[in-house]
Amino acid sequence: MTNILLIGNGAREHAIAEALTRSTHNPKLFSYMKSNNPAISSLSADTRIGDYTNLDDINQFAKENRIDFAIIGPEDPLNNGAVDSLQKEGIPSVGPTKRLSRLETSKSFTKDLLKKYNIPGNPKYKVFSSMDGIDKFMSGLDGVVVKPDGLTGGKGVMVQGDHFQTKVEALKHCRKMLEEHPCVIVEEKLEGEEFSLQCISDGITVVATPPVQDHKRRFVNDRGPNTGGMGSYSSADHSLPFMTAEDAAEGLSITQKVADAIYKETGEYYKGVMYGGFIITKDGVKLLEYNARFGDPEAMNTLPILKTDFVDVCRAIIEGTLNTLTIEFEKKATVCKYIVPKGYGLPKDHPDAKSTSEKIEVDDVKDAKLYYSSVDKRKDGLYMTTSRAIGVVGIAENLEKAEQIAEQAVSCIKGPVDHRPDIGTKPLIQKRINHMKEIRE
Ligand code: GLY
């Protein structure tokens, strides 16, 4: 019997819990969550609700339940050192130590690592700890992106043309970021199509999972504010419609080089997920950022079609034997659409940005899979919070059918909800293909 501790309480962790519990090893799942996710609870032998900063409580829960290994879903417990603290109790984890999770938590660490080890893919960038020199560096760039150095939940990046127009505004954002963060990164704005490549690493061997495209913008046709992700899709051929085999190979090659560099730099093997946010440009594949965990929503595209036993994958990550395991995925397309409260992602002063919890009803969703995120199960039914509520996933032999399955399921969820009907549809995908064609030409 394998006892596994899962830390996290979102839809991504629901997908992880499902992948673990369908293992032929029949593991017992124990979940540590900051708020109760009813779907994860129903898959768990026991759960504890606690804070991700409370490492003693996490350790205690792990020891009480004789945990064999842990898997950490979100970035916060990684950044808090949950892996290091479990390690001290002799409990290994799928997830990097605090030092190695700087891959996500410190953009300057990752960018400087690529530079030091001559790894391709870095956009032109500079890290600043004061305003000195920012103006001059910006003058040499056609368009700029400014990001604070630290965890921002994917929402701290400011892009010229989207979030601001002029250099004066960019400087204002830098000044504000420097008030709250030790450094700010200024980099060139790149034109292209983005893809997420979630790679699994034991520190030596790095294996790519099928690429996924996420949709950050809140509204149809990529309008509105950036969110944690409104939905995502992946193709049956394990590529993306605008991507070449070389693009995917380049993303993996960069990630393998980064894993090697991390070991050379720190003497520690990176054990967990290296999720690269890449962009395909006229000059090839560039790295936007790494996350030290599965993507949310991307995990919901990837884990449901994983054919290899996920417990074996986790063990291989921990034991450093990924080179001996063949990791396979079903040749299926997936479309994930997030059901969100109508006010999700809107500025606080917007009249629709309500913070009250609202009731929803879920009818028979037929062939779709549902992954619960911020929902509260009360005696009289299911309630949303202010965040993303349910990831609805369609899986089929092609994108068209997968999108239809997801859309059919969305119509079965009743209440003051919203979603992006355009994700995974032909017109939006054709737009991506045309965009990439223009750029390559
Ligand atoms: N898909 C965005 C994220 O997981 O950060």
Task: Give a concise summary.
By secondary structure, the chain is α+β, with helices and mostly antiparallel strands. Helices cover 31% and strands 26% of the residues. Bound molecules: glycine.
Major sheet size, sense and barrel closure:
6 strands, antiparallel
The quaternary structure here is single chain
Task: Evaluate the radius of gyration.
Answer: 21 Å
Number of strands: 25
CATH arch. level architecture of the largest domain: 2-Layer Sandwich
What is the name of the CATH superfamily of the largest domain?
A: ATP-grasp fold, B domain
User: What does the overall shape look like?
Assistant: globular
Strand content: 25-35%
Number of helices: 14
- What is the CATH third-level topology name of the largest domain? D-amino Acid Aminotransferase, Chain A, domain 1
How many angstroms separate the termini? Answer: 56 Å
Uncertain parts = none
**Ligand catalogue:** glycine
- Average of pLDDT: 95
The CATH class of the largest domain, by name, is: Alpha Beta
Structural category is alpha+beta
Count of all domains: 4
**Helix share of residues?**
25-40%
